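Justification of resources, computational component.

The compute hours requested in this renewal are based largely on the per-chain cost of generating structure records like the one below. Each record pairs the submitted sequence with a full structure-token output. That output is archived, and it is also reused by downstream analysis tasks.
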Amino acid sequence: MFNKLKKLIEQAKKRAVNSIEPEVFNHPLAQKTDWHPLKAGGTNFGTHRLDNSDPDLLIFKATKGAYVFSSIFSGVGVLGLVIPILAFIGMENKEWGLLMFGIFFGGIFLTAGLLLFKFMTKPCVFDTFYGCFYKGKKRPQDHFGMDPNAKNSIIKLSEVKAIQVIRERINSKNGSYYSYEINLVLADASRINVIDHGNHAAIIEDAETLATTLGVPLWDGS
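The structure output for this chain reads:
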């Protein structure tokens, strides 16, 4: 049963990729590029928008929805910690099991919320002054001395040959939806994921702005 389900999923993914014809982009690199989703999963709402108010810095920043989403997990975690502790303090006969459960339950949600906040609010920066792309709040000069084999730490914009947009169908217990990726395609046809979320209109608008600024083609496979 499991193998059959796995086979059906693989066939669905294959059909989705086969529906994309790289030839339409009229570029030899497009035919060498993988058109499978690069990043598994994704949200059903917009988590990032491109801020191009500074001509030297294009930054994908977290939306209010991303902040709220991660804050909900953190809030549940805090309540899960505080309520059992207060209840424990007020008990005449101390229920240590209740306290430990609260710490465990609250700790899981608080940790999940903090991790979500960390990853969802990490900026994705295109620095046209230094000519590089990186993720995080550190400036490019703080990265240039790193191990050159740490390829994902910093990418030279001159290596970016196209902007790829693809979609992935996400199935959950509450239904299904599409999540969309913006990927950088490098000269060797390898890809670097920039963002992945469910607001298609925002993805296309930001990808177009990015492609225009970098002077590279946009390959829309969504």
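Residues 14-18, 145-149 have pLDDT under 50 and may be disordered. DSSP finds five helices and nine strands in the chain.
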